[in-house]
């Protein structure tokens, strides 16, 4: 009985968040569409999907996939981050940067839960909310490869995740990680989370799709497995101490389960690029996905996610 009011309050808060995120996503897509009508400088279109570069699409379907991915991480890790900054966030005046924030789901949840701290999200495309968001959350368009638009030592916590398909090894080593470290305050924390583009216990169709993803990324100079290198990139800055690492193997599961949905949507998001790379039709690619989805349960396929976090000295 004693837990009734608190459970009700938490359920109400979740419903409020979900409604806000749906409204924010709709508002973002509409405002982005109006920008597209006047200028297509951000995007190109292919087979009805919107793209910014060699990565996955950055349209409404992709933003919905990223929101599902956020909740998958939250349920699998039982946390939004591993760095020991929860107390500082709650106390207030903690400044947080999320680089490559996408639709901003991670940032807006933290902003709602920690009203006395300040949260900034950047992304190279304006796919984040512009109107409906907590008062302590702001978003900017910026590309880390051009340099972050912040002074040295600005943030107490710098966060970035799921950018493995965005940067070459050289960019990770000499641009991305050094720039994240630069804007982090001494004593602050930097955290990177990734999922390699290789799934454990894959069936033949799944393995074919994974190998094709590797080859496609390699043709653009991008390494599909980043986690063995991240520790070294962090170490080479000579500005980080106490570098920690953790990983989780997450079963893809059955149709209808969250991980299954994310895995299926991830394969579908790559359709345009990978079907062209394989020189097969979209119908043939769709059949590969259908076979892969049947394999997930049969082969006990698993996705591995990694977190690295360290303190700036």
UniProtKB/TrEMBL annotation:
Residues 1-30 are annotated as: Disordered. Pfam families: Methyltransf_25. It comes from the Eukaryota. This is 9524_t:CDS:1. Residues 96-188 form the Methyltransferase domain. It comes from Ambispora leptoticha. Gene3D superfamilies: Vaccinia Virus protein VP39.
